[in-house]
Automatic annotation (TrEMBL):
Pathway: Lipid metabolism; butanoate metabolism. Residues 181-277 form the 3-hydroxyacyl-CoA dehydrogenase C-terminal domain. Its EC number is 1.1.1.35. Belongs to the 3-hydroxyacyl-CoA dehydrogenase family. This is 3-hydroxyacyl-CoA dehydrogenase family protein. It comes from Amycolatopsis samaneae. It holds the Pfam family 3HCDH_N. The keyword Oxidoreductase applies. One of its GO terms (molecular function) is (3S)-3-hydroxyacyl-CoA dehydrogenase (NAD+) activity. Residues 4-178 form the 3-hydroxyacyl-CoA dehydrogenase NAD binding domain. The keyword Oxidoreductase applies.
Amino acid sequence: MKRVGVVGAGVMGTGLAQNLGQCGYEVILTDLTDEILAGAAQQIRANVRMGKLLGNGGPEFDPELVRYTTDHGELAEADFVIENITEKWDLKKEVYPRLDAICRPEVVFAANTSAISVTRLAGLTGRPDRVLGMHFMNPVPMKPAVEVIRGWHTTDETLRTAEELLEGMGKEGIVVADAPGFVSNRVLMLTVNEAVYLVHEGVAGAEEVDRIFKSCFGHKMGPLETADLIGLDTILFSVEVLYESYNDSKYRPCPLLKKMVDAGLHGRKSGQGFYTYH
């Protein structure tokens, strides 16, 4: 594998393009508009500069390795494709048949999803055996492990191909079964949602909740700081998927979370969430 297609130039797609470029892979980064792609290129440059300043930038980044394009047809050149668009089924279901028509039959598709069924996505293609989940964590270049999700039809060969790519990126793949939320989000989203309920009910403020987790349990970030980093809109999408998938009231989204998302308070990316960012 030399050339990796990355679909979606949001926070995760941008981090992936940076990480892949630093590890010597050619990247085809696609999105809907040139403005989004220009923002991704700017963010990658900023991330690389900040990494150098902090002394943890990782391998040297060659900007020539990343191609930015709104033409998804260019993904025909990719040896592996990672899809990173918004966690909404109605959006994702439009992408996979298009990728299936564009890419060579042997190319593996990885869904970078935190909650949506990999088996269901694979069913949209003519290659369900070559579709799997790769749940990367944010920020991608700094995280050493990836949750790898095996769908119903995913073959051992597909898993080996994905593990080969992850090894080339300096990451460990941890394989889990395809179930809503998998391991990380089934636990994390429930924790974050419950932390929001604590603020909603006036049990504690956001700072107090986070301080308890950091001081008492040694977490680097509290659950509400984590929510701001991930994006409260993404948190809400994920909790709603879990609620709908399991029909279990423990996943009922907190009204405060819904209200904050409606108000545009999405966390770090909007400048305001449970904390203010400048």
